[in-house]
Amino acid sequence: MEKNLFNSAARQYQDMVYRVALHIFGNPQDAEDAVQEVFLRLYTRQEPFGTPDHLRRWLIRVTVNVCKDTLKSPWWRRRVPLESVPEEPVFDRPEQGELYREVMALPEKYRTVLYLFYYEEMTVREIGEILGLGTTAVTTRLHRARAKLREHLTEVWQDE
């Protein structure tokens, strides 16, 4: 579709497409995703529309179909409401939860290097390349992060 025609159609019909999708989904986030998909399909469409009414009907039909396809997808059926997900991960042992809370309490620069080093099993050199740091800076951050964790976790376990 020609860029000028597409921009004109998007301005004219985006609210209508959003309202149709919102009516089907019942939540704004999924409706916004559907609007993007519908207008992507419009942009890539090769055949011209005969009349503005033809374009309007086509947009409504495509919106309904995109929403139905989304509702039929396995991903949609396995979703759970965000309110039912615990704010903090659930761990097998209480110590794991304590460690998680202490790691999350660290400043971001320490959390990041710990995560990349221990969970993604990256080398100090690789971490430095990703974060734009030298290997000495990464090693220093790892050392300081471990020291802070050791200090906080010792305090927690001595209090018990």
Main pleated sheet: none
- Described by the principal axes of the CA atoms, the overall outline is elongated
Distance between the termini: 68 Å
The rounded Rg comes to 25 Å
Query: SSE order in H/E notation?
Result: HHHHHHHH
Strand content is under 5%
Number of helices, counting only DSSP H or I runs of 4 residues or more: 8
Helix content: over 70%
Protein model, in words:
- This protein is mostly helical and 160 residues long.
- Helix content is 76%, strand content 0%.
- It has eight helices and no strands.
- The protein has helices at residues 3-25, 28-44, 52-72, 74-77, 94-105, 108-119, 124-131, 135-159.
- α1 crosses α3.
- The protein is elongated, with a radius of gyration of 25 Å.
- The chain starts with a helix and ends with a helix.
- The model has no long low-confidence stretch (mean pLDDT 85).
Secondary-structure map:
Layout: H1 3-25, H2 28-44, H3 52-72, H4 74-77, H5 94-105, H6 108-119, H7 124-131, H8 135-159
